[in-house]
Amino acid sequence: MREQRRFIRYEAKGEVILTVKNDASCQVNAELADISFVGIGVLAEKKIELDTQVNIKLTLESFGETITAEGRIKYAQEIKKFNANVFRIGIEFTNIDKQAIQDILNYLQANICLESRRKQ
């Protein structure tokens, strides 16, 4: 099957807080799984329905900065992780500082290159 994504996804570790836009009392804490220029993938204990608009607070491990954004739930599926059920949620950015996300991706790419050089 041919890859349909337009942007590379980078595996990343971090914490994500999702707040449903029309219900501020609905907040979901999640673990960052991957990130790209157009969105993120997270693992959460709670499901959020497709097309739900969310506010995103993203703290990437070792990056040292918290990024805020807005997004829409594009994917949500229950999966098993270490004998527990969690939800794999894909979120498309609808509003984010493009320079901030580019800085994160550059940082991740630089770390991948550094790690590769260390292994040689």
Radius of gyration: 15 Å
Instruction: Pick out the low-confidence regions.
Output: none
Mean pLDDT: 89
Helical content (DSSP H or I, runs of 4+) = 10-25%
Number of strands: 7
Largest sheet features: 6 strands, antiparallel, barrel
**CATH class wording:** Mainly Beta
Count of runs of 4 or more consecutive helical residues: 1
The CATH H-level superfamily is predicted glycosyltransferase like domains
The CATH topology name reads Thrombin, subunit H
Intertermini distance: 32 Å
Q: Which structural class is indicated by helix and strand composition?
A: alpha+beta
What is the N-to-C succession of helices and strands? EEEEEEEH
Per DSSP, what share of the residues sits in E-state strands of 2 or more residues?
Answer: over 45%
In CATH, the architecture is Beta Barrel
How are strands sequenced across the largest beta sheet? 2-3-4-7-6-5
**What is the count of structural domains?**
1
Overview of the structural elements:
- The chain has 1 helix and 7 strands; from the N terminus they run E-E-E-E-E-E-E-H.
- By secondary structure, the chain is α+β, with helices and mostly antiparallel strands.
- The chain has one domain: predicted glycosyltransferase like domains (Thrombin, subunit H, Beta Barrel), CATH 2.40.10.220.
- A hairpin with a 6-residue loop joins strand 2 and strand 3.
- It is globular.
